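Pipeline run #58 for the internal structure catalog. This entry was flagged by the ingest filter as a single-chain record with no existing model, so it goes straight to prediction. Upstream metadata was stripped on purpose; only the residue string is passed forward. Reviewer on rotation: M.T. Logging verbosity set to normal.
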Amino acid sequence: MEQVSFRWMTLDDVDEVLAVEQASFSTPWKREAFVQEIQHNMYAEYLLLCDRDKVIGYCGMWLVVDEAHITNIAVLPSYRGRGMGRILLQTVLAHCVNKQIALVTLEVRVSNEVAQSLYRSFGFEQGGIRKNYYTDNQEDARVMWVRL
């Protein structure tokens, strides 16, 4: 079984996070985007999920006043199906509760039923559709939210 732990992302982690990002998304963020988030976005927080010292997943979020927006969440494909995404999201939501966040939102591809099922299991509800949200194929995004 994995020896999972959590820690907050630093600049030293960007390459490992980028590897998870590239393995997970058809239009991954570029390295510069993560550097910008860590160095210049005062609202951004990135929680890393690690197996021993290896980054196997992460969740980025912007916390503004009493709302959080999950910008991206991903787990390496080789670790999927083992509950790692659930553990990561559970920890992120607990962090939001500790920070007195009242509402958490995110966007998810309308075709990504696995992710939507995970989000619904934590109480996320559909809030609307963003038409042509994804630039690779103009797929719509489902906006989901949960009140904490």
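catalog note: The helical segments are 14-24, 31-40, 84-98, 113-121.
catalog note: The chain has four helices and seven strands.
status: ready for reviewer M.T.
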